[in-house]
Amino acid sequence: MTPAAPPSPAAVLVVCLCAEWCGVCRDYRQRFAQVQTQFPGVRFLWIDVEDEADLLDPLDVEDFPTLLLAVGDKPHFFGPLTPQTDTLARLVRSLIEDTSPPALADPSLTALVARIRAAHPFL
Fold this sequence. Notes:
By secondary structure, the chain is an alpha+beta fold. It has four helices and four strands; from the N terminus they run E-H-E-H-E-E-H-H. It has a single domain, classed as Glutaredoxin, CATH 3.40.30.10. Helix 1 packs across helix 3. The protein is globular.
């Protein structure tokens, strides 16, 4: 039996949910972009929770930064994260290197991933 292959980087979505008024978020944006350069092919997206409140509804993000990581249409991580490049890089690396990363069994997060992918199609 052949072991499962890790997910294709193109299938991986990393979304930072932040707010422009949040100083921590503004500081984190550059670090988020730095991590993006380490993972070519992985799709990174910055979403301002106030600008795109309709997209997130009914989810309410209270802690910043909050990260959503998905493979395909399945969410694998959702929650606040310390705003450090190493922490985000380690999380992304573990997701793309794992041959069968566990998905979150939360229908509201699965629906959120679908709405984000529909609203932000990638080339």
